[in-house]
Amino acid sequence: MALLIAVSTTVAGLGLPTQALANVECRYSIASPPPLMLPNVTYKRDDIGPANPLRLSLEVAKPKWSAIAVKGGPGVDYDLALGRCEDEPLVTSTQSGAAVDFVAVDGNAAWTAPPGTSRTLYATVTRAGSVTGQFALEYSTGGLPLRVGFPESLNLRDTPAVVRDVYVASGTTAVITLRLTAGDADLAVVDSLGAAPNTAARSRSQSIAQSNNPGLTPETVAITVGSAEPGRTFGVVVVNNAASGNYTLARS
Description:
The chain is 0% helix and 47% strand. The protein has strands at residues 4-8, 41-45, 54-61, 65-72, 78-83, 91-93, 101-106, 118-127, 135-140, 152-157, 161-168, 172-182, 185-190, 201-203, 209-211, 219-225, 232-240, 244-251.
């Protein structure tokens, strides 16, 4: 039997039904819940086969964005699903080939609860293709918000993706830049609306903006909130396509 190995890191659209992540009772009671993922830790796993999905649980906390991501080895395609119940996935990410799959969750919009509280969601990883191989899985819980004048250095080893909070006030624009010293990475921006619980979880394909330049070319995205819209916090996802990479994430 393959083992799930945790390796510490140096950092850390598909529409959903209304009230998709609200506090509801699952159709099935879980006598023995799947293992709980530790945040900001990379799990490396041997091939699981298409008929043997890996199921894990994770704690989503207010008020920040978090993201779970999976990356297969060269040519190995793994998909990801996330839901409020173990057997009822509601959001899926099915990027082709070995592209990184992620699902990001807005802790503010996922449910009504006081700040600092959390709830359990369930993730399922499956192999989609016939090519066998290992994969890396990580649950990034964000951390400090990305602020102007405070760039962040990211030294990622095996980590599929990390997420950071970016608050954009009404009538303003935030420009996010990712500079690459070594490795290969992309940028994605996810958004949710507090008044629409069906947008609380977003897959990679539901990103509102992406930057996918080749090689060491910097990645840049601009996030604009109109003057008629309320300011809100976006999730900025750094997708690490390489086995290791050194990046600098900045806001202007």
